[in-house]
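Tokens in:
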């Protein structure tokens, strides 16, 4: 009986010690532990979309500040440990569905592509994505008299998704 109990305890201890090899997602962090301050200057826009760089930058700053322990500043300097650089490359709106009776577009898709890079104070790239693409769909008003411009709200939703996903990708080393 004692032999069985000892064998059972030994087997349980071995199982616990070796584990199954799985680990919790999101534990791999690209940002080194000595990074405490991140600079996020205004993104650059190569598009004609009004204030898109301000909207996206604001959402990225908000996400980093609310979800991480890092001190976020807007200006790069000697006292920052890393800098997140971003460029909005394209911003396009295209019709996606049309009314079969009138031929008029009923929904549109807004697509934004950006290039983002997180670089430490020594120039080492910690994260980089040159083709960061996001899309959001919105409805177009069928009645011109009650026209309400929905594309700015779609851009805000897209920007929030962009920021949320970017912060997750940087933190989780995706």
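Residues out:
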């Amino acid at each position: 009986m004692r032999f069985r109990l000892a064998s059972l305890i030994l087997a349980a201890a071995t199982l616990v010690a070796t584990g199954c090899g799985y680990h919790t997602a999101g534990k791999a962090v690209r940002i080194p532990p000595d990074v405490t301050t991140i600079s996020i200057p205004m993104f650059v826009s190569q598009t004609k979309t009004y204030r898109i760089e301000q909207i996206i930058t604001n959402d990225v700053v908000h996400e980093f500040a609310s979800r991480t322990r890092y001190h976020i500043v807007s200006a790069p300097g000697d006292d920052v440990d890393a800098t997140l650089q971003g460029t909005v490359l394209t911003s396009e709106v295209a019709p996606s569905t049309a009314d079969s009776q009138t031929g008029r577009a009923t929904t549109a898709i807004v697509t934004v592509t950006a290039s983002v890079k997180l670089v430490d104070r020594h120039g080492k790239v910690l994260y980089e994505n040159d083709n960061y693409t996001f899309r959001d769909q919105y409805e177009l008003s069928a009645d011109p008299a009650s026209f309400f411009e929905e594309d700015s709200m779609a851009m805000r939703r897209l920007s929030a998704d962009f920021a949320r996903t970017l912060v997750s990708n940087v933190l989780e080393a995706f």
